[in-house]
Write a structure and sequence with these properties.
This protein is of the alpha+beta class and 181 residues long. The chain folds into two domains: 2-76, SP0830-like domains (Alpha-Beta Plaits); 84-175. The chain is built from six helices and eight strands; from the N terminus they run E-H-E-E-H-E-H-E-H-E-E-H-E-H. It has helices spanning 18-27, 51-66, 77-85, 112-119, 150-157, 166-175; strands spanning 2-6, 31-35, 41-45, 72-75, 100-105, 126-131, 134-139, 162-165. It has a four-stranded antiparallel beta sheet. Helix 3 runs antiparallel to helix 6 (166-175). The longest helix has 16 residues, at 51-66.
Length: 181
Amino acid sequence: MFVALLRAINVGGRTVKMQVLREQFEALGFARVATVIASGNVIFETSATEAAALERRIEAHLLSSLGYQVATFLRTPEEMHAAAMHDAFPGTGAGESGYALYVAFTRSAVSAAAERALMSYRTEVDDFHVNGREVYWACRTGMGQSVFSGARLEKILGMPATARNITTVRKLAAMTGADTG
């Protein structure tokens, strides 16, 4: 089982119905396909185990069928559970009401240089924490009021990423059967 976190689904004026997205994954031969929230989250089963090859296969198929590039980030149920349970900002209240917490997913671990560059963007509003292939972004005023953005994050990291709020990450982990406490 994998969770696919898709970038560029239902943003920027491009709309993809979740039924269509499920059909696209089923066309790839995946089983028990489920979409979660209309923002590009797909849970599916496959006998394939090589995540990088699956990411490339999904991206090629979606490019062909949707007509635009959809960066794809796969996580196993265990990896989603770890991302959901990681306490990036202990004791701060990040992820609670009024203090937004987002998790950005990347394909590879963030380099030490990229992490140092990201930390230079810390402010009274925005804070960051890197844990392997996940970047945690705590935003005290909400993402809409922050001067930081996903595009800026990708530029700093030097690689694609897609972000989800912590509530969605926890929901995805729970739906895979992973215990999220």
